[in-house]
Structures are given as C-alpha cells and as structure tokens.
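Pipeline run #58 for the internal structure catalog. This entry was flagged by the ingest filter as a single-chain record with no existing model, so it goes straight to prediction. Upstream metadata was stripped on purpose; only the residue string is passed forward. Reviewer on rotation: M.T. Logging verbosity set to normal.
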Amino acid sequence: MREYDIVVVGAGPAGSMAAMEAAKQGASVLIIEKRQEAGSPVRCAEGVGKEGLLKTGIKIDNRWIANEVKGAKLIAPNRITVELSSEHAGNEVGFVLERKIFDRYLLCEAARCGADVMMKSSALGVIKDENGIKGIEVESSDGVHRIESKVVIACDGRESKVARSAGIDTKLKLKDTESCAEYLMVNVDYDKDFTHFYVGQCYAPGGYVWIFPKGDGIANVGIGVLGSKIGKRTGYPKELLDRFIKNNREFEAAKIVEHMSGTVPVALPLEKTYIDGLLIAGDAAHLTDPITGGGIINAMVSGKLAGSVAAKHVYEHTELSEYEKLWKKELESALIRDYIMKERFVNMSDNTLNLIADSLKDYRFSDLGMGGIIDAIKEKHPELMSELEGLI
C-alpha cells in the first residue's frame, strides 16, 4: 500500500505500542523500521518496573522475562550500601527483560492487530505542504517510496530524524546526554535478587555503573557517563567500565559475550511533541528518565497515547494537541522533578554521597517516607541540609 491512515517510524516499544493501539481502533497502520529485526542490537540495561509494565496493559509473558528482582542496592564510593525495595526503586527495577524477545513480541502484537510492517526501510523525511505533514518518504531495498498518511508518529530515537525533517529541533546538549557502554557477561558472582547501582564520580562522572542480573550468573554490566564530563582527564565510558570490572571481585571469572554502546537523553522533554500531521513519542520526544536514563515504560505509555489520539484524529477529528495534554498528565511532573535532581546529582561530590549513604544505611525506605529520609540525614549529618536544600 502507498496510503495509510497512520505511519509509525520505529519498531521499538513506543512504535509498536502506537501501532497496536491505532490498529485496535480500526486505523490502517504501517510500521517502518530501519533494522532487519526488532530489539537488536540491545542498547539498554533491560530493566522495567513491574507496576509500570502492568499499567501499559501488556500481559506479562515469561518468554521475555529474564529475571525478577526484589529491589535495588545503591553503592556509594566508600562501598556503603543502601537497599531499596522494587516499589521504591523506580521504573527500571522489577523485571530484567530479554529485549530481543520483548520488542519482537510487541511488534508481533501490533501486526496481529492489523498493522503492516516494513523492515530494513529507512525514513528519509516527512512529506509536507502548507497544511502540515502528509506522509513519509521511505527508502527500502527496492527504491524510494512516498507513503501518504493522515498522521505520522515519530518513534525513531533520541535525535529523531523524522521530527527534524518536520522542522523540530531535537538536538541534545552534552550535559543532557549519557554516553553508555555495556557488556553482557557470564560467570558474574552477584546477588540475582537485586540490581546494583554504583554512584559517584570515582565510578562514573555524572552517571553510574549498573549490574542488572539475568540469572544463571549472567548479567548486563554497564556504565553511563555524562557527555559534558567525558574526556582524557576523567576517562571514557568503556575505559571506566573496564577499570570497574578489573577492580571488583564479582568479575574474577566473568567473560564478556556481547558489547553494546549508545547515547541516552537525560534532558527535559521536547517543548512541543506535535504539529499538524505529526506526533513524537518515546526517546524521540526525550521522555527518558533524566536520573536513570531508563525509558522503556515511558516509551510504551507515550506510544500508546499517541496511537490512540492519532486514530481518534482520523475517525473523530480529535485535535492532535490532545496527545501532548495526555502524556504530560501522565509523565511530565516526574520528568521535571527528576531533571532537577539530575542537575544536582551530576555535580555531587563523592564525600556528599558517602555521607548520605551513611545516614540511610540502617533504614528501610518503605518505613521512612520522604519526611523520614530528611530526618535521618538531619540527625546524622546536619551539615548536608544546606547542600540538599531544594532537592529533597
């Protein structure tokens, strides 16, 4: 076909959810994906929150669950550990996925609902006139095609080519990106019931090191370093990750079986995520969590909303601006809060992180609440209160 109600660019979680929701509502939908298979290569730690996943409406399937974890351990530079239960650890803790299976599952579900799929096909840019977006130009193995549509949904990653072709500035500042390196490793000696986050400038300037357990001694081991802090003096992501692995006993017998790298937005959301004929969802809209860099759940939520609004636009003439209202209601306050926290956290000294960990090491977060956390820090290290003012 060369004409659809809706064209979705990108077959990640945002794109598949958008296509699935729009197809369920009766729209004709095409998904365009530049790679030859969904979910590969993997470019994330593969963690999702259990509660967040359930809210997306996707039925949990053990085929794409590698491991279920009880919580997270935050390790300060001096090795003091603070333990968080999964419900207090954010949208990246609960399940560790097999993304190659998970993304394929979502894409298959979108196709079951009626969406057409074009793999190994690159979006070159939108087709537009004075009235807005009218479709997309696509290059595949048999040439360049013009595909007309009533709505295009851009789910094509952090600096969305589709959004840029429509005139939307998606560029990221270095201080709003995390440059990441990750290994899939076997024979890792770890506690499979917890994800591990090593925080501090000594580990990862402006970021953190993670261990996400997948069971049977297998784990995703990675690092994110703030783009503005990378350099010869501080080190580069792979160099810092290799040093971390070399200096920790958990990896004495470990072997690397896969190597991944990429860049993650840790920015505020795009100022505008729609124009006439175009919606922008997931990483393309910069909806990743600025603290953790995790984005699977937010991608799925925003993708589902985009697909629903796009279908209603086709059949009921609902304004596309409704999409931005809906995702902001669901996600905006947490994203802004976490961005403010990120801006403070990335410059926090290792000594401050050690003192915070020392204040909280003997408490359960579920028993404390935010007021209790403040009281615990005030009681043990009152000198921190001025530094943390406005943050907690």
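catalog note: The two ends are 54 Å apart (CA to CA).
catalog note: The longest helix spans residues 321-345.
status: ready for reviewer M.T.
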